[in-house]
Predict the structure of L-aspartate oxidase.
Amino acid sequence: MKKADVLIIGSGVAALQLAKRIRDEKNVIIITKSFLKNGNSNLAQGGVAAAIGKNDHFDSHYADTLEAGRFHNDRTAVLKVTKAAPRLVNELWAEGCRFDIDEEGRLLLGMEGAHSEHRIVHGGGDATGQRIMEHLESAVADKFTIIENTIVFDLIIDSRNRCIGAKGKSADGSIKSFFADHIVLATGGCGQLYHHTSNAETVTGDGIALAYKAGAEIADMEFIQFHPTLLYLNGKTHGLISEAVRGDGGSLVTEDGIAIMEGVHPMGNLAPRHIVAQTIYDYLREEKQIYLDVSTIEHFAERFPTITTLCERNHVDWKKRIPVAPGSHFLMGGVKTDLIGRTSIKGLYAIGEVACTGLHGANRLASNSLLEGLFMGGKLSEWINESGEQDEMDLRTAEFPENRRPIGKVNNHDMRLPEIKDIKRTMMDNAGIVRTEEGLLKQKHWLEGFQIEEWLNMDLGHFTFEELIRVSMLITSWLITDAAIKRTESRGGHFRSDHPCEKNHDWIGRQIIQKRNENNEQIETAVAT
Ligand code: SIN
């Protein structure tokens, strides 16, 4: 049986950063559900947050990350990632990644919500993800085997509970098992579980469902970030209008031009995303449309070419104002990992949005996601490059992975899967921006009507590509709903109107405690709440 060193499932920034940094002599296979660049990373407009400005310091980036994350974050993760950010950006830039620069050749630094400094590095105006992906792809294209249009539907776990491989189904229906020393989930989040989303069509929670099915620890699934501004026409959303637009002066207004964020939060239009999204949502519920007024932004079309094209394609005159609504954007929770990417199952790793490192807490700070992908891809590559021989696999179970679990007594005729459109509608209505116990219990009951336990215990090999996606969506929706029922408070991306926490809309004055050594180098930072 041919075995690779590393099997990477997914192909976003975290996956390609890992692949790029793994030593050339290693045998690496990348499997992706669609084609290499058809994912969220490529769509990312915003940028990479890094404290590289003259007056900036990573302790400020650290504090902003905690503030946005409502202090639910793992502080070690926040410290390590924010500290590493300038180096990660400078490395990419030195390698030739095309970030935007000013006349003097310095990196241009943009502003986004909940940041206290200009620190967003961007490329191609609002095409940062695409620029980074092009750069990383050029480094890995000839280096490793890339298998496209293949969905992984099961992880192979041996008798010692070690992950040793994965089973994939290609678009033509053929099934293949892949074996490797290190199996890495880099499948992204689950934005497509919701009717309104900024996410690529491929982002359906597959990695989380796979890990859960295999018995890995999953955390913080209730924390879903809804981006405040997606282009909104005739009850449908059509793609992201970057927060950088508000960073450059865009303002959220009603039909009559009243600024809606005034008096809601001291940062106004640049308040943390959950606050802006919940505010817009309240207006939409009363059938009042909200717009992004961009009339004060000079050279809008040059600064935001992707958004200009999006508006023009949808016949929206951006020079006047852009109709917007919130939509699901990012999952803060996911497969629980340490800062190397190790999950609770030996041999199984998770990096990027599929993982929950604790960096984002209850709500992610803008432009911290490409950053996390770059950081975690790098950290895992170091671990893999340095790790010695792996334990021998137990191939008896590898060949018969279904031995792992008794196959449920399933009469296929009785089993049915929900339609994708129904999952998206019900999740939006019952487990979306504003949640109640009643709505969540209704959603849980509806999801459980599709025999989730049975899907978890079944060999899904005979399902079609599309049915496998529906199984992932069902399992991941259930994990979100169940976690949202259990958290009886409002915090960041989880808002319970039956448990409103006053502080969710309040500005908690922060107190940064810094200790510096005699050379004025920071040796410790803490944020008191
Ligand atoms: C945006 O451009 O508004 C999105 C960036 C991000 O999610 O960090």
Remarks:
- The CA atoms of residues 35 and 101 lie 31 Å apart.
- Confidence is low (pLDDT under 50) at residues 396-410, 502-514.
